[in-house]
Amino acid sequence: MIRPILLLLTLALAAPAFAKTRVWIDTDPACGLGATSDPDDCFALLHLLTSPHVEVIGISTTFGNASIAETTNIAREFLRRWEGEGPPLYAGAADADYGAHPPPTRASRAIAAALQRENLTFIALGPLTNLWAVLAESPSLSANVAAVIAVMGKRPGEVFHPAEGSPHALFGHGPIFSDLNFVKDPHAAKALLERSLPITLVPYAAGKTLSITQRHLMAMSERGRAAIWVAESAKGWLAFWRDVVGRDGFYPFDLAAAIVATNPAQLGCSKEAVAVKPDLDIGWFGFGPLSLLFANPGEPGAFTVTVCRTGRVSTVNLTNPTP
Predict the structure, then answer these.
(1) Opening angle at CA 196, ends 181 and 253, nearest 5
(2) Spatial contact of 7 and 56, defined as CB atoms under 8 Å apart
(3) Which pLDDT band, with edges at 50, 70 and 90, does 134 fall under?
(4) Contact 204, 160 (CB under 8 A)
(5) Which one has a higher pLDDT value, 210 or 69?
(6) Alpha carbon distance 243, 174 (integer Å)
(7) Predicted local confidence at residue 11, as pLDDT
């Protein structure tokens, strides 16, 4: 059963007594780029920047949902509307067309400098190209990666089919999405798994525990410039889900990763095995020859990661105008 988000409209004014987790956000936002452009990254950014549980050290952009020029411009537009001192922004990888490892970018240099200063949790809302560029150049910095939270992973034979039998879907079946963040750069994901980093995967099933509806967008429109802009940019996407997917709300997959970063108890997490290999249960399906599949423990070539997929979400903060 989908549990709708209950938006919190206020934050405690007092500073939290606990230590904040220091995080770096790597994102490929396409908010408002087009009616069928996924706005999930901007919901995740809102949640992370308003959370009392994390301190955002920096934001980097990557290709993925759109080109690097587009994702960087959108991230810049988001931060321009942010009421308060926002974190620095750095442009990163433009594509996955590289040889041994991605070339350095402003983002990879900034991430490396930040990791040299302290341990950080890396929240990957897009392909893992930027982090791979850092660690391929400076392998010793792996020790300073406290955690990687990545939106990817699937079961063998699983297709991302949000209509799932809805009688209101266009042509009765609606769209089928790919495991986009993995598909965009399988090499980077596999390379980071091979480094035995503490990786947490937030797959499709986790995003399905959330649903953003018109009611939520209306509430956000009363809570500051950044939230207003995100809500406005999501209207086309919401209409697409209503008219084509056949649902009155959309699944914000990247937001699930942000929740894991701020309060992992809201999404049940456990140790599981994953493997990078073809999904023989469904074939290529036009999404790429390799998949990041949940596997049997001890399977040759498998890696142990943490997977967060069981929905326990009851409250999510999206609407506060200040950090």
Answers:
(1) 25
(2) no
(3) very high
(4) yes
(5) 69
(6) 9
(7) 31
Sequence spans of domains, the chain: 6-316
Q: Is 105 exposed, middle or buried (0-12, 13-18, 19+ CB in 10 A)?
A: buried
Confidence band for 13, pLDDT divided at 50, 70 and 90: very low
- For the chain, what's the residue count? 323
Instruction: Please name every residue paired with 270 in a beta bridge, in sequence order, or none if there are none.
Output: 307
User: In this predicted model, what pLDDT tens digit does every residue of 276-289 receive, in sequence order?
Assistant: 999 988 765 546 78
- Are residues 78 and 31 in contact, defined by beta-carbon separation less than 8 angstroms? yes
Q: What is the 3-state secondary structure (H, E, C) of 150-173?
A: ECCCECCCCCECCCCCCCCCHHHC
Of 64-68, 145-149, 167-171, 173-177, give the lowest mean pLDDT range: 167-171
Please give the full DSSP string across 98-165, using - where no structure is assigned: -SSSPPP-HHHHHHHHHHHHS-EEEEESS-SHHHHHHHHH-GGGGGGEEEEEES--B-TT--B-TTTT
Look up residue 116 and give its two tokens.
């040299």
Read off the DSSP letter of residue 264: G
Q: In angstroms, rounded to a whole number, what is the distance separating the alpha carbons of residues 236 and 25? A: 25
Phi and psi based region of residue 285 (left: phi greater than 0; alpha: psi -120 to 50; beta: remaining):
left
Q: CATH number of the domain at 6-316, out of 3.40.1190.10, 3.40.50.300, 3.90.245.10, 3.30.70.20?
A: 3.90.245.10
Among 251, 258, 136, 144, residue whose Cα is nearest residue 204:
251
Token readout for 186 is 């399988």
3-state SS class at 237 = helix
CA dist 264 and 257 (Å) reads: 9
Distance CA 62, CA 123 (A): 12
